[in-house]
Description:
Layout: E1 5-10, H1 14-24, E2 32-38, H2 46-49, E3 54-55, H3 64-74, H4 81-89, H5 91-101, E4 115-116, E5 126-127, H6 133-147, E6 151-155, E7 157-165, E8 172-180, E9 185-190, E10 193-196, E11 207-208, H7 217-224, E12 229-230, E13 235-242, E14 248-249, H8 255-259, E15 263-265, H9 285-299, E16 304-307, H10 313-319, H11 321-329, E17 339-348, E18 351-353, E19 365-367, E20 372-373, H12 386-399, E21 420-421, H13 427-443, H14 450-472, E22 475-476, H15 478-499, H16 516-531
Parallel strand pairs: 1-2, 1-10, 2-6, 10-19, 11-14, 18-20, 21-22
Antiparallel strand pairs: 3-5, 4-5, 7-8, 8-9, 12-18, 13-17, 15-16, 16-17
Helix pairs in contact: 1-6, 1-12, 3-4, 7-15, 10-11, 13-14, 13-15, 14-15
Amino acid sequence: MKRPLNVLVVGSGIAGMSYAIELAGSAIGRNVRIRLLSKAPVHASSSYAAQGGVAAVMDARDSFDGHVEDTLMVGGGRNEPKVVDRIVREGPHLVNKLIAMGASFDADVSGRLHLSLEGGHSAARVVHHEDRTGAEIVRVLRGRVRALPMIEVWEGWQALDLLVQGEHGQRRCAGLSALEQRTGTMHTLQADLVVLATGGVGQVYQHTTNPTASTGDGIAMAVRAGVPLRDMAFVQFHPTAMYTGTSGQAFLISEAVRGAGARLLCHDGKPLMDGLHAMGDLAPRNVVARAIHREMERSGTEHVWLDIAPVGAARFAREFPAIDRRCGELGLRPVRDLLPVMPAAHYLCGGIATDDRGRTGLPGLLALGECAGSGSHGADRLASNSLLEAMVIAMRAAAIAPTYAPSDGPITANAFAEFSITGRTHASIDRAIRDLRHAMTCHVGVVRDRDGLACALRTIAHAELVVARRWVRRRLSDGLFNLRDMTAVARVITEAALAEPRSVGTHFLADEVASPEHRSSRSTKIQARFARR
């Protein structure tokens, strides 16, 4: 009998756990060893915090074509239509599979699922568990992971760099180096297959809905290993994060709240979205975020208002209990009080370039979830498509695992063996992180221009110099590792933005804006090409 296939999954969110579970249940599940590495507890992932739900065609009045068309339209015609079609058609199967695993989704007394309406959707198709869908799915997946003996969960391990065998056309991923945070010890972990499911990049911005662990680790590792990326210019800003006057992780106000009737208001009380888009408050996220950005600049304020009154107090408390509870903690009374909201970095639409089975440009390396760029989201993500994509591609990726063979070749030595972990973050690193976040927010945010992007690159270069100076002294810390990854990610986002000549989706150039005719015609052409397949 061959030795077990040795698999390292980096990230314990929905994408990583889904892959591990599917692989364990596959034809080779009895002859596989899966190590699930996570630098933060599972409840500190973006998956756990996801409020909205899973977009899926579960109503006879809806259609796969409608879901696909909505996805392509919001994506600005930059999606991969065939990938979108495959993912959308797997939606109902995925939802039913989650229910069979024990997930509880909101439904009426007859058992018919309650489907929410969210921005950019032409029909109500978002399956959800109150306003805590991510937490419910994580609960189910976490229970399954614990029950499978071939899956080992290594919490408190931070992946640092990929280990690569061979040269040129013979390169393959052979494992990774990692920091065991509890002991400060560096380790070389060999693997036949490495799966990156490390989440997003929101922490490179001042305001983000992402948790503190979202520093772009997986993408930065791919950059250093020369693995191709795609669509890195497209960072989605959620229009309605709660404004509290502080930076860091912001609490999200789900789009479904607007789907239930809530309205965005200017500071003079006028409806913000009236006359700006046919879908009004439920326009695509990039449209709403820019409208809020313009109003904030016009009024000289740091937020706009969200009026919950049209939803009604009873319905709001029943359908959005987590948001209702958070409002109470902040001293706000929904329905009676207007809620202050602002755009915040929410989701990277691109990432490590993959196909629809998670395969990257480096053999032996897969990428799943937000750190991956499958082309399904294009230039902007349709609401609640992220959990759908993450789980569908994870299942498809696990199905090809039998094609990977155990490898016994030599691997690169641990590059960190002679380094020491100080356990303390130097003040220069903290300053560099603050400056980097400020530059990315001001110049590579909701609205951009070429001078601002060039200014951001200068700040990034300074942060890279801080990393280099600390690195050469071999004095490492968690903060330095984070800054190292954040600068790598910030650079590729900014350079990708400079390389995009026209505004599309989340990438809006104030000094060179594509005409609406250009954008709509491009989207229409791509949809027509998709329809002719």
